[in-house]
């Protein structure tokens, strides 16, 4: 395996079955590998394995639908062979489109992206295995691709140019590890649409007698050769017979293309009901899973939005109540300041009669007691209970009788406005 977040190099597929004769052929090789797989495994092993298995089911199904043959796998890597570079590129684009649909339903940290490299070249064949520079160039190009991206070699580009409606970015000559020559690479432009595969030509329903006889004879010969060379040629790997390998039925491709981007589960369920063993079953199920996950995510976000709105409303109400209380406190402080200013105001006239001097202060007053700092006792100011002045008689009382800080003071306002006070109390000062 190889990850973009570590220094590992792309996988080289060199396993060769011993005893098998060596052959050569021209093939289109597709190499794909998960990005950040080791990091995701360290963070959530079980979840990452489940995600990889679901992605691999989609990848394998698309490869087999496009007539590809899976040559080897190594953990999160897949190597596939195609007879046609056009089909290899179609396959790569459809893989990235299907995986994007699945990944869009996951949180960012749970998305498992793949890179793909494709090369057309001469490969050595030994049994079911492939090796040589034709294979390794595809693996090296995959290592250079961006997460979710596709790189193709110039040999692939030359073959598919004009055959597919795609956009490419020429990356120029690339120096690849252990490859003796530079390889020109092209990036398939992001957002390129998936070219619709051509409808499969219907197979003939009938065979001539001569053709049937030839097939029977060929079967007999092959069976005989198989018995003779049974020890030399080991049995091939069993083929997957699930619906992912099923060729499209008549009209199935058009039916699928009409709903491949649908967000209505009912339409996808209709496809599964009509073609339960169809070629796109894995993709349809992946699409259904993606839609369900997207809707669950939308519900979660809507619930978060609702809870946030409720919390904001509670916060706004609390702030309004705090503002109201502050306004009341400011109003009380203003009234207090006015009372203090009125208490300090001098007599209005110096010529008032003694009777007027003793009565003009009658009424309810809000006295304030202030004390300067005295030894270890800090200064303080306190609002006393309102007092009533009647005929110049003043009584000021504070605290509860017999407790620290209690006192009672009496006095009379003289005709000249002078106030003489006398009283008793219990000191609340330290040391007294």
Can you tell me the residue ranges where pLDDT is under 50 for at least 5 consecutive residues?
Answer: 1-9, 11-18, 193-245
Number of helices: 10
Round the Cα radius of gyration to an integer and report it.
46 Å
Number of strands: 15
Layout of SSEs?
Elements: E1 22-34, H1 37-43, H2 45-65, E2 69-74, E3 77-82, H3 85-103, E4 114-126, E5 129-131, H4 133-144, E6 150-153, H5 154-160, E7 168-174, E8 183-188, H6 209-228, H7 252-257, H8 265-274, H9 281-343, H10 354-359, E9 363-365, E10 368-371, E11 380-383, E12 387-389, E13 393-398, E14 407-413, E15 419-425
Parallel strand pairs: 4-6
Antiparallel strand pairs: 1-3, 1-4, 2-3, 4-5, 6-8, 7-8, 9-12, 10-11, 13-14, 14-15
Helix pairs in contact: 1-2, 2-3, 3-9, 8-9
Short description:
The chain is an alpha+beta fold and 432 residues long.
What does this 3D model show about the protein?
With 432 residues, this protein is of the alpha+beta class. The chain has helices spanning 37-43, 45-65, 85-103, 133-144, 154-160, 209-228, 252-257, 265-274, 281-343, 354-359; strands at residues 22-34, 69-74, 77-82, 114-126, 129-131, 150-153, 168-174, 183-188, 363-365, 368-371, 380-383, 387-389, 393-398, 407-413, 419-425. The strands form 4 sheets. Strands 1, 2, 3, 4, 5, 6, 7 and 8 form an 8-stranded mixed sheet that branches. It has a 3-stranded antiparallel sheet with strand order 13-14-15, with no helix packed on it. Strands 9-12 form a two-stranded antiparallel ribbon. Strand 13 (393-398) and strand 14 (407-413) form a beta hairpin. Helix 1 runs antiparallel to helix 2 and helix 2 (45-65) runs antiparallel to helix 3. It is rod-shaped.
């Amino acid at each position: 395996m190889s990850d973009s977040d570590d220094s590992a190099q792309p996988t080289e597929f060199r396993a060769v079955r011993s005893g098998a004769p060596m052959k050569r052929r021209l093939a289109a090789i597709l190499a794909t590998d998960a990005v950040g797989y080791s990091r995701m495994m360290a963070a959530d092993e079980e979840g990452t394995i489940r995600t990889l298995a679901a992605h691999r089911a989609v990848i394998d199904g698309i490869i087999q639908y496009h007539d590809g043959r899976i040559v080897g796998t190594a953990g999160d890597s897949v190597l596939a062979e195609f007879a046609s570079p056009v089909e290899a590129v179609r396959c790569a684009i459809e893989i990235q489109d299907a995986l994007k649909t699945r990944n869009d339903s996951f949180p960012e940290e749970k998305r498992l992206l793949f890179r793909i490299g494709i090369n057309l070249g001469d490969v050595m064949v030994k049994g079911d295995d492939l090796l040589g520079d034709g294979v390794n160039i595809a693996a090296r190009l995959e290592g250079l691709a961006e997460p979710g991206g596709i790189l193709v070699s110039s040999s692939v580009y030359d073959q598919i140019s004009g055959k597919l409606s795609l956009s490419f970015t020429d990356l120029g000559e690339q120096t690849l590890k252990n490859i003796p020559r530079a390889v020109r690479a092209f990036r398939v432009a992001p957002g390129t649409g998936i070219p619709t595969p051509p409808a499969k030509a219907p197979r003939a329903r009938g065979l001539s007698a001569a053709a049937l006889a030839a097939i029977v004879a060929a079967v007999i010969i092959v069976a005989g050769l198989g018995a003779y060379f049974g020890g030399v040629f080991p049995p091939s790997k069993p083929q997957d017979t699930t619906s992912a390998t099923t060729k499209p039925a008549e009209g199935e491709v058009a039916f699928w293309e009409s709903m491949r981007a649908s967000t209505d589960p009912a339409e996808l369920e209709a496809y599964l009901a009509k073609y339960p063993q169809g070629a796109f079953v894995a993709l349809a199920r992946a699409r259904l899973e993606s839609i369900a996950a997207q809707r669950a995510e939308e519900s979660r976000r809507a619930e978060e939005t609702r809870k946030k709105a409720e919390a904001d409303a509670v916060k706004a109400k609390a702030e309004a109540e705090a503002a109201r209380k502050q306004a009341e406190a400011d109003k009380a402080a203003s009234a207090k300041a006015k009372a203090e200013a009125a208490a300090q105001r001098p007599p209005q006239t110096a010529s008032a009669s003694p009777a007027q001097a003793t009565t003009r202060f009658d009424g309810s007053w809000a006295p304030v007691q202030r004390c300067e700092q005295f030894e270890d006792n800090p200064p303080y100011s306190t609002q006393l209970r309102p007092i009533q002045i009647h005929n110049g008689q003043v009584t000021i009382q504070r605290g509860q009788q017999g407790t620290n800080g209690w006192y009672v003071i009496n006095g009379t306002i003289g005709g000249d406005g002078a106030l003489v006070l006398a009283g008793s109390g219990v000191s609340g000062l330290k040391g007294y």
